[in-house]
Amino acid sequence: MKRIDSYGRMVYPITSETGQKDYYEHLNYWRVCYQNNNPLIIPSREDVREYLRLQEMENKLYCGTDKESRKMLHKLRVYNSQYDWRPRKSCDDIFVGLISPTGERLLPNSFADVFTQFDAINSKPIFVPVSNGEGWALVSLSNPHILMTDFQYNAIIPERWEQHLFFVQDCETMKWGALKITFPFLNKRHYNDCLPLLETLMPPIADEICEDELITEDAPTTFFMTRRGDKIGILTDFGYSDIIYDSYEADNTKCTFRLIRNDRKRARKADYRHPDGKNHSI
Q: What is the distance of C-alpha 126 from the center of its chain?
């Protein structure tokens, strides 16, 4: 997916017709540190068995110095970078479900359509979008499966990098909002005992959502441009601003923003953790 110039920022138009089509295009190619158009290899059953075996041996392979260990480690790296570990749709005469490359049934044949754009072995998501033919909802991949929302959305787009946000389009208004996975503590003494839930990060108020980024030292930090009419705002993992601005500027080093309105002399200051802005202007 190509970036476009929008309000002075180079962004990915996630929710546009083209954006929805190409948002997961990177999953079709080798997962390497350079740009490439090498298509991923569809694994055979023997590839799956061998990959799982090598994964179990991974620590020993890194410590090994013999030729055979180096050969197996190389093969593991090829499996990691050049093979397609996305699930496939299963189906009966009417409904579809989801099956992992390992043969594990992720979802029963109970839906009109299911989302498949994720690694079902190494980064299986907590929730996935499913359709009943009239709308989309989110269902857990737990056992038993839990329907987390009603089929109230015209479209659901899981955020492609961290996989903890979902951009959702309301069926009635056709506006876009965002849901976020949260992990409230169930037991303060045992922090692993937590149940993943969904909360509304931004209600459906935007005509469009685009992906932007702050260029930080370790890796780019993703945030999002929201648009309603001819006004824009920002959305981060921590919340959203009003969609009332004409442009914004970002400070990559400080992870801060200047939210600019043409009818105001001063811009509003915001940062990644406080995208709604602070109590003073700059």
A: 12
